[in-house]
Predict the 3D structure of the following.
Amino acid sequence: MSLDTLSAMRRALEAGETTAVALTEQALAAAEANGDLNAFLHLDPTQARAAAEAADARRQAGEGTALTGIPLAVKDIFCSEGDPTTAASKMLANWRAPYDATAVARLKDAGAVLLGKLNLDEFAMGASGENSAFGPTLNPWDRTRVPGGSSSGSAAAVAAGIVPTTLGTDTGGSIRQPAAFCGLTGLKPTYGRVSRWGMIAFASSLDQGGALAWSAEDVAEVFSVIGGHDPRDATSAPGTVAPASTLLRAPVAGLTLGVPEAFFEAVDSALQGPLAEARAQFEALGVRLKAIELPFAGDAVPAYYVLAPAEASTNLSRYDGVRFGHRCENPVDLDDLYRRSRGEGFGPEVKRRILTGTYALSVGYYDAYYRQAQRVRRRILESFTEAFESVDALFLPTTPTTAFKLGEKRNDPIALYEEDRFTIPANLAGLPALSLPVGFSNGLPVGGQLLAPHFEEGRILSLAHAFQQVTDHHRQRPTAGGVA
Amino acid sequence: MPTLLNKEKRGSVRPARAKPAHPQRLNRWNASMALDPDAIRRLATLSRLALSDDEVAGYSESLSDILTVLDRLKGLPVGDAAPLASPLALPQALRPDEASPVTNREALQAGAPATDSGFFLVPKVLS
């Protein structure tokens, strides 16, 4: 079997059984073989090979870290110096980032081998990967289905065995939902844990970068490298992130896991079995389950779809056809330049969110929508705070369904918005949240979600790691038609 | 469907470059009303988005549907909850006011559609 997890690659590198160059060639070949997935928007073999050679030299000099020589790729919403950075938008189709995002710089400093940039829903707006200006990404478990979104390429590239880990971003579920659809483990850290510097902004009070990989162990390894305070991001949380080994070893037995029953009742019947087994599995690990209620968490979708578009309409005003990005032909005046550059450069969903956000922020609607959504957000945060007085973490479904068919919800924005209803609450409250594979239904992965109080990533990583010591859902791999 | 604006509805498409509407006009919109094409055109003007007639029609439909979701916010018993803008009650991190290397102007302007001598070029503003 080829090496396809970060920890297996690391062990092989440390034992001298393989080299970064060999792993990089394997990854490049796998990317080529899986070109039909449309997971990559930009693949840079030359840069990757050079980084791999440097990594091998570094390891030989005895200066390697856990990530030295590990091939990986990042969602094309992270700036990487000199590389195309498009946010999957026609607006930035020809733009190259003049600097590295902090998360990317930290990966490079650790000696990771950056293979390229991954497809996504345009500006991270979507839950299926179909909103990319460069075509949809396919789900490796079933190529007629979506991989989820918006970190669509980030999930597909790992699930297809191209790279062992990727970076994604999560504004309303964009790491966790694709992780669930593709049988992966994905962590959205606490808001402010991973620097937003060089991460193209969607909704600044919600956006958070994080990693996807097969296991909690591997996710922890990447999180410990990219996380921690960054003076260049004014909303960056203080403090550093512990090493992965520390993050993974919090005691699990004796913890109390809150289970909001209303969320479990709202999932498709096909997911009920695996989720119930997961609950039993946690109990077998010595975790106590406690039924809880989360008032207002069920109202997260309308609050989010006011706040996120409102922030997006402001953030995306920078795309004006002047400083970067697409410019229309022959503008007659400045207003024409703005209107046509933006009208031509943005795709349909991005325009929809800008219009929605502009509406919500309009005089006369501001109080009814924007202020009210912010008040609901406060109540949701309070719900979690109260819940965490009696439980250590929460367990709930990641998604209402398994991966759906390509095209199935493309013309139904509301159906897609509802996809996020189990993931959005953690973003509104800024909580760390992790999705992990808990089983399969009709050959498709089912995800479960763990949430913890602010800055307690270690608690949910440890819970997931303990779960993965006694289950093998995260060891399943897609074949042509279903579960291996 | 009721119209959005408190004036006679225009049958024709708005001129391509209508003057930006005064935001105060929005007050005349009747809350809870669906977003008709004129309302979409007004939002597009505020958003500086050129939209085709087909797009206007499509957004009129989809934004009206979305509004029915957003309207679920109304009447939620939030009481006296203070609006929450950011999830963490942390003081904004300030860094020392020291000069540090930043990406240079040439690199930043390399991605701009039109520049000259360090300036961004735009269509003539003054005649």
Summary: The longest helix of chain B spans residues 53-70. Helices of chain B lie at 37-46, 53-70, 105-109. Chain B touches chain A through 60 residues (CB under 8 Å). The beta strands of chain B are 115-116, 119-120.
